[in-house]
Amino acid sequence: MIYGKNGNFPFRLSRSKIDLFLECPRCFWFDRKMGIGRPGMPAFTLNSAVDALLKKEFDLLRENGQPHELMKQYGIEAIPFKHAELDLWRNNFKGKEFYHPETNFLVFGAVDDLWVNKKGELHIVDYKSTSTENEISLDDQYKKMYKKQVEVYQWIFRKSGFSVSPVAYFVYANAGKNREKFDGRLEFELRIIAYQGDDSWVEPTLFEIKKCLEAKEIPQAGEHCEYCRYSKQTSL
Question: What integer pLDDT is reported at residue 141 of this predicted model?
Answer without folding.
Answer: 73
